[in-house]
Design goal:
Layout lengths: L18 H22 L4 H28 L5 H25 L3 H31 L2
Helix pairs in contact: 1-2, 1-4, 2-3, 3-4
The structure holds fe (ii) ion.
Fe (ii) ion (FE2) binds next to helix 3 and helix 4.
């Protein structure tokens, strides 16, 4: 079941059955939820920026690790995954830059609450899930 906007509550159905990756996805979802709670609570832009930076760093590390797992088992859809990871990273960067230049505008809040969360959720539930199946079926 799809979460409603701005909250990515971890559920077992997101498990791709690779424990290290599942643990990171869970952490990723929690960090995203922290960010949205900070937005909702109207915390200072400096706090929001710290959380965005934290999320970006975490996402980057996570993508790198996930790709290592894929490389190791010669996952056939790896190029698709790398492209998706690059897309998200560059969107994230755009949002961060916009935030730094324009501040916390309603448009940015909306983008964070909807676009980022939807992407993460769909990515894990679809592409990563496919990788989990491949990884465990070898
Ligand atoms: Fe992925």
């Amino acid at each position: 079941m799809k979460n409603t906007s701005a909250t990515l509550r971890w559920q077992n159905e997101y498990k791709i059955n690779i424990p290290t990756i599942d643990a990171q996805h869970k952490q990723l979802f929690n960090t995203y939820t922290d960010l949205n709670q900070a937005l909702k609570a109207g915390l200072k832009p400096s706090v929001i920026e710290d959380t965005l930076n934290r999320l970006q760093l975490y996402v980057t590390r996570h993508f790198t690790m996930e790709e290592k797992y894929m490389e190791e088992v010669e996952y056939p859809r790896m190029a698709e995954q790398v492209a998706a990871h690059e897309y998200f990273s560059s969107r994230f960067n755009e949002i961060l830059q916009e935030f730094k230049s324009s501040g916390l505008t309603p448009a940015i809040v909306k983008t964070i609450q909807n676009e980022l969360g939807n992407w993460l959720q769909d990515h894990v539930a679809e592409l990563d899930m496919d990788f989990g199946r491949f990884y465990n079926s070898r």
